[in-house]
Amino acid sequence: MKTLSSSWFVRARLKSRHIPMLVALGETANLNRAAQGLGISQPALSKLLKELEDGLDVPLFERHARGVVPTRYGEAMIRHARRMLTGLENAFDEVGALRRGEQGSVRIGTILTPCAELLPELIRRVKQYHPALELSIHTGSSRDLLTLLNDDQLDFVVARYFAEPGRTELCFEPLHREPLCVCARPGLIGREMPLAELHEADWVLPPPGSVLREAFDALFQHAGMTPPRKVVNVENLLLVTTLLEKNAMLTVLPRDVVEHYARYGMLARVEVGAGIESGLNRDLMVYGLITRREDLLSPAAKRVLALLREGAQAHGAL
C-alpha cells in the first residue's frame, strides 16, 4: 500500500474545494458563473484554479474572452472530479442510511422453530422497508447461539435462555412456546401409538444435551422407563427428513416445523396415547429474543429487532 505522502494529490496539494470547482467550470465554461454557483468570488475561484494548475504543473483551461475551455488535462480532471463528487455524495447518503438503520449488515441467530414462520416474515418485512440491508441467519442450538452472542459474533438471537457462569449478562424477552410432537413420513403409522411402542421404535433425534433431546428423554424417565436405545443422533434437519423418508423411523420436532413440512407431503404427525404430548412438553422452556445490550446495537440491528418484535406480536407472542 502506498504511503499518503507518495500520492499525487498530496504532492499537488489537492483540496476538497478543487473538486466542485472543476465540475462547475466543466458545466459553465465561465469563471463568473462557476463562482456564483459555488457561492464564492471570481478572484477566489481563479486562485483555486491556479493552485491546482501549479500543483499539477499543467494548464487545465485555456482563457478566452467568452470563457474558459478545458485542455485535454482539464477534460481528464473534470471527468474524474465528477466521479469523485458523485462518490462523496453517495458516501454521505450511505452514512445517513446507516445512521437511520436502512443499510448495513445484521447477524441473527435462531433455533429451528422461528425458521418456519417468524424469520421468513421478518425477512419479508426487511426486504419491504429496507431492501439494502444485508441479513445473515445462523441456525443452531440455544446454548451454541448464546455462546456466539456472548463472543460478539451475533447481534441478537431467537432462542431459549440459559444462565451460565462466565457469560455476559443478557436480556431475555419471551416470545413463544415451542410445542413438540412425534412425526414420521406420511402413511408410515396409521394408528395411535402407546408409550411402550414408542419406546421400542427406531428414532432419529438431536444429540444428547440438546433441549429437545432432554425433553424427549424426560418423557420416558417420568414414566419410570429408560429412554429408547434405537436412536440415530443427527443435528442436520435435511438429514433428519431424508432418514424419515427412506426408513421406518420416528422423530420429535416442533409442531410449527412439522406443519410446514406436512404442507408439502414430507412429514405427518403421529397420533400418540393420552398424556404423551403433554408429557413431552412438560418442562420445555419458552424461547424469545436475547440481546447483550440493546443500546449498543447498530441502527440497522435496532431496526431489524423492532421489525422482529412487530412480527412476533402478529404471530401471537406471549
Give the distance, in angstroms, between the N- and C-terminal Cα atoms.
55 Å
* Class derived from helix and strand content: alpha/beta
Compute the number of strand runs: 12
**Text of the CATH class of the largest domain:** Alpha Beta
Number of domains: 3
Topology order in helix (H) and strand (E) letters: HHHHEEHEHEHEEEHEHEHEHEHEH
Major sheet: 5 strands, mixed
CATH topology of the largest domain: D-Maltodextrin-Binding Protein, domain 2
Let me know the average pLDDT.
89
Percentage of residues in strands: 15-25%
Molecular shape = rod-shaped
Highlighted features:
alpha/beta; D-Maltodextrin-Binding Protein, domain 2; 318 residues; rod-shaped; three-stranded antiparallel sheet; 3 domains; Arc Repressor Mutant, subunit A
Give a written overview of the molecule.
The protein is rod-shaped and about 105 Å long. Strands 4-3-5-12-6 form a five-stranded mixed β-sheet, sandwiched between helices. By secondary structure, the protein is an alpha/beta fold. The chain is built from 13 helices and twelve strands. The longest helix has 29 residues, at 72-100. α3 (31-38) packs across α4. The two termini are 55 Å apart. Helices cover 46% and strands 17% of the residues. The protein has three domains: 4-100, Winged helix-like DNA-binding domain superfamily/Winged helix DNA-binding domain (Arc Repressor Mutant, subunit A); 104-177 and 286-314, D-Maltodextrin-Binding Protein, domain 2 (3-Layer(aba) Sandwich); 180-280, D-Maltodextrin-Binding Protein, domain 2, CATH 3.40.190.
